[in-house]
Structures are given as C-alpha cells and as structure tokens.
Amino acid sequence: MPLRLLANRLLDLALVLFCVSAIVFAMIRLIPGDAVAIMLGANTEVTPERVAALRARIGLDQPLVTQYLAWIGAALRGDFGTSLWTGRPVIAEIGAQVWPTVQLTVLALALGAGLAIPTGVLMARLRGRFADGAMRVITVAGLTIPSFWLGIVMILALATLAPNLQALGYVPFSEDPLGNIGRLLLPAIALGLPILANLSRLVRSAMLDALVQDYVRTARAKGASERSVLYKHALRNAQIPFVTSVGVNAGYLLGGAIVVEQVFAIPGLGRLILGAIADRNYPLLQAAILVVTCGFVVMNFIVDLLYAVIDPRVRN
C-alpha cells in the first residue's frame, strides 16, 4: 500500500477525531443540570463560597474554550482527567468496563457478518422461489425489530422454557469461558440480527447483479461448477459493498450495545455512560463517548484501507 495513501488516511482520521472531540465536549455541556450542585447535593452547609471553590477546583469556572483546550491538551498526553465522584483516572474506569462491550460487539458482528454471506448467497441462488420470498420477509422483520425489544422477548422466552438457565449479568472470560459465552450469546443474537438482515440483503443484491455478467457466463461455459461460479467469481463482486457495510455497522453496533447491555444487565460502557450522565461526571462522560465515537471512526478507517487491498484501482 502506498505510503502517500496511508498518510492521507491518517491525516483524515486525525482531523475527524479532532472534530468529534470538540462536538462531544460541546454537546455534553448542553446537558441540563450542574455537576457542582449534584455533587454538593442537599447539604445545608452549601454556601456560594463553597460552590465557587468546588467549581474552581474542577475547572468549571473557566470559559468553555479554555476548558476544551486544557482537556484536549491533556488527552493528547494520555491524560483524560479524573472522575468527579471517585477521583480515579477515567481511563482506568473505562478500561474496567469496556471489555464486556467490546466482547458483545465483536460476537454480534461475527454472528451477523459471518452468517450474512451464506444466507445472501442462498437467497440469490433460490431467487424466485418460495424459500427466497420467505427469507426476504424474515430479513425485513429483522431490520425493523428493535434489538432491545427482541432481547426482552428472548429473556421472557428463556425464563419460560429454561428457567434454570441464567441469561442476565456478565462473567469474565478468564473466570468461566463457557459461562462468558453463554451470558453473551442472547444479547449478541439480539444485537446482530439487524446486521445479519441488512448484510444478507446486500449480498443477495450484489450476487444477482454479478450472476448476469459476462465473466460469469464465460466461467459456466468453461465448465466451472456452480459452487465455483457462486463463491469464486460472483461473490468477489460483492466484496467492496459488503466490507463497506460491515465497517459502518460495526460502528453502529457500539452504540446499540449500550442499549442492549441495559436489557441484559451487562456492566459495560452503557451503564458507565448512563451513570456519568446522571451524575454530570463530565470527564468520565467525555472520555467514554469519545471512546465509542473513536471506535466508529477507526472502523471506517480500516475499511478505507481494505478498499486498497480488495480493489487495486483504489490505490491508483
């Protein structure tokens, strides 16, 4: 891959992350409520002097531009501040709860993207038949059903059919690998179903376009097997739109995981972010949201690089 292309992508990535950090910082300050008032609570000894002292101690007495420049300067050095409530570095608190979210996102993406290719190819192969129509109806339903609603239904079904199985909570992989996968399987299915529905429809459409191309007819005329025609020739045509959609959906999965985590009582970034919002814990909230948005941006950065690997024309 040319170094010039890589340098341009890295420059774009840095510019996007800078803009995202500014937007995140500004949007958080628009949340109603005062962090100082919440921290002091209903203490009868609250005085204007104490409020001013606490505001100065945590830097909220400075103009927003000054606060942002101080925060972004420290962040570039790896210091994202300390939690207003615990006094711990926010990176430590995020690191303690980011892995359940990462695990859930990766498992949901693996299920959705991994099953989308054979499902989409099968739908294209069965075009015009009853099975194709039924699968298309199911994929439309998968796109429209909210993940959190599906998660609630799955919990109720499991409680009815197998009341002895535990579906809520989280077990670290290092303590119980099977228990870890078992607890994450249902939320991963709930989160990955829309991805499966979306990607399988995309693969079906790309496959149908490819199967009428001249190079596919030539491959069949040379005696290539149907399996070779489908997977070796036609499927290549769907790689770029498939990779694009996988990258975009991976970013959205991070946001969707925050909601699904609440349904399945998983102690991930979702609980951390909601708690930080309620407490107006600005440093923790800024860093946590920035981690989620950075995950989205980095996934699209990786997709851009994969374009150059899949299609040589992009490198030129």
Automatic annotation (TrEMBL):
Cellular component, GO annotation: plasma membrane
Domain ABC transmembrane type-1 residues, every copy: 98-303
SUPFAM superfamilies associated with the record: MetI-like
Any GO MF annotation of the entry: dipeptide transmembrane transporter activity
Key words, A-Z: Cell membrane, Membrane, Transmembrane, Transmembrane helix, Transport
Transmembrane segments: 12-31, 106-126, 138-161, 181-199, 242-264, 284-310
Subcellular location: Cell membrane
Membrane topology per record: Multi-pass membrane protein
Family affiliation: Belongs to the binding-protein-dependent transport system permease family.
The protein's name: ABC transporter permease
